[in-house]
Structures are given as C-alpha cells and as structure tokens.
Amino acid sequence: MNKFAPLNLTPEEIIAFTPEWQGERTADGRPRVPDGILERMRRVTISQAWGVLRGDEFHWQYEGGWVCTQPGKVLVGRAVTACYMPRRDDVRKQIFERAHAAGCIGDQVSWTIDTLVPGDVYVADVFGKVADGPIMGDNLSTSILAKSGNGVVHDAAIRDMDGVVELTEFVSFCRGYHPSYSSPTIALMGINCPVRIGGATVMPGDVVLGRDDGVIFIPPHLAEKVVTTSEIVQLRDVFGKMCLAEGRYTPGEIDGRWTQAIEEDFSSWLEAHPDALPVPLETIQQYLSSRTW
C-alpha cells in the first residue's frame, strides 16, 4: 500500500518522524499507544489535554467547529491519516494505476479503510468540502466501524445521514451532511502521511480525542502525561468540592493556589481512599511518591 501514492510515509519514515515515541509500533510503523492509556483517555476533557499540549509547546493540535454523529459520546483511538486533494487527471491516473498494481481494490475511498485495525481512527483531510465533499456514507461507515471499532474525523461532509446515525457506536466528527459524492472531484494523495485538519497538524499514530467541544490530536509520547495529569486534576476537583461542601476551606482557598496545609490534607485523603477514587491506583501512588515535601 505504501507504494501507490506519492505522499505516503514508509514505516521507516514514520519511525524517523516520531522519534520521541519509544514504545510498541504497528506493522506500518505508527506508534501504538497502549489500549489501557486509550481507555483512560476517554475521561480526559479537551481543555485538560489542550493545557498539557500547550505546556509542551504543541500549539496547533486542536480543531473545533464539528458536527458529531453521536452527540455526547467520546471518540478515542490511533490516527490513520489520509490526504485528499482536488482532482487533477494526470496525477489521479498515475495514482489509480499504482494503487491497482499494488493490489488495491475498487475506488480510492475504500483504500484507507482496507488498512484499518481495531483501535484506529480514520482521519481524512478533504480540505473542508461540504458540497461534493462526502467520501463516505452509511455503507463505508459500517465497514469502518467493523474494522476499527471506531469512527472517523472527516474534514468534509458525509452523506446518508439517516443510515450513519443509526450506527450508535460510530462516533464521528464531520463538517456536516450533504447528499453529493466526492470521489469524481478529488484524488487520494497519501495514506499515513502528515495531514492538516483545519488548524491542526496530524501525524499517523497520534491519539485522537473527540468530544462535543472539538477534536484534539495528541502526540503519542505525551498521551500518558495527558491522562495522568487529567486524573490528578479530577482528584483535586473531587477533594476540593468535598471540602467546600463540608466548609473545611473557603472558595478562595480552594480556587487559588493551594497552601502546603491543603496539599498535605489532599495527600492524606488520597492515602485513605486508594481504592475508592475514579482513577487508577497507580496514578495515586505515582502522585504520592513524587511529593517533594
């Protein structure tokens, strides 16, 4: 599959472009963030993830303005990217010839789907097209869900709205719905290559987190930091609200920078409730072991 389009990264190139990731990789070279981290990511808010990424100088990983096919649900997975461009017949002809010679079957809109494995999220750069923008409807959505167990981030419209929304586990983000069909107007230029989704740069293997307030693309080497930071924030929120309800501290004390006395009270509370809190025990142990006082 890597030979058919000019913008594809080979597995070796993906590894070279993601040197900060030191863990397991998929056969195509993408970083494979562990399933456990992905499951914990489902409880992370967009704001929490955004704050961590900004702190590490990743400023352009968020994109808003989506329509979600299943409002209120969360999309999490590893990015498989696809780059489409406006049709140019001389280039498009070469791409189709290379693709079919490499064993790709049928039309270009199915080639990326054929590569998906469980846990993937199909991230398609179709440059925001609405009219003549859909590269998928309910049939291809069904196939994507069957292969990946996930939905898509589709920077364009999708079609067959009635059938798509019936797929209750197909949590996807698109630019809207339109009855047209895009394949005659575009060309698939690459699979697992860097893509631009609105104002965000996305690499193969990035962790996709989609919620009602937008989609953020998390570099794999920061995924564990994002979930751990979020879990500590959640714990502090639970403790802070409990203290406010009990009148133990004032709103000014809880909303401001915590004093050492509050921090010590928080740590004591964690030690007393290691198995009754909404985060993994290892997060609590890690936090307690990292105290500097």
Characterize the structure shown:
This protein has 293 residues and is α/β, with parallel strands linked by helices. The chain folds into 2 domains: 11-32 and 64-218, Glucose Oxidase, domain 1 (3-Layer(bba) Sandwich), CATH 3.50.30.40; 224-289, no CATH class. Helices cover 35% and strands 19% of the residues. It is built from 10 helices and 11 strands. Strands 1, 2, 3, 4, 5, 6, 7, 10 and 11 form a 9-stranded mixed beta sheet that branches. The chain has a two-stranded antiparallel ribbon with strand order 8-9. Strand 4, helix 5 and strand 5 (152-156) form a beta-alpha-beta unit. Helix 2 packs parallel to helix 7 (223-246) and helix 3 (46-55) packs across helix 7. It is elongated and about 70 Å long. The termini are far apart. The model has no long low-confidence stretch (mean pLDDT 93).
List the topology elements.
Elements: H1 11-17, H2 35-41, H3 46-55, E1 62-63, E2 67-68, E3 75-86, H4 89-101, E4 120-129, H5 138-148, E5 152-156, H6 161-165, E6 173-174, E7 186-191, E8 195-197, E9 200-202, E10 207-211, E11 214-218, H7 223-246, H8 251-255, H9 260-272, H10 281-289
Parallel strand pairs: 3-4, 4-5, 5-6
Antiparallel strand pairs: 1-11, 2-6, 3-7, 3-10, 8-9, 10-11
Helix pairs in contact: 2-7, 3-7
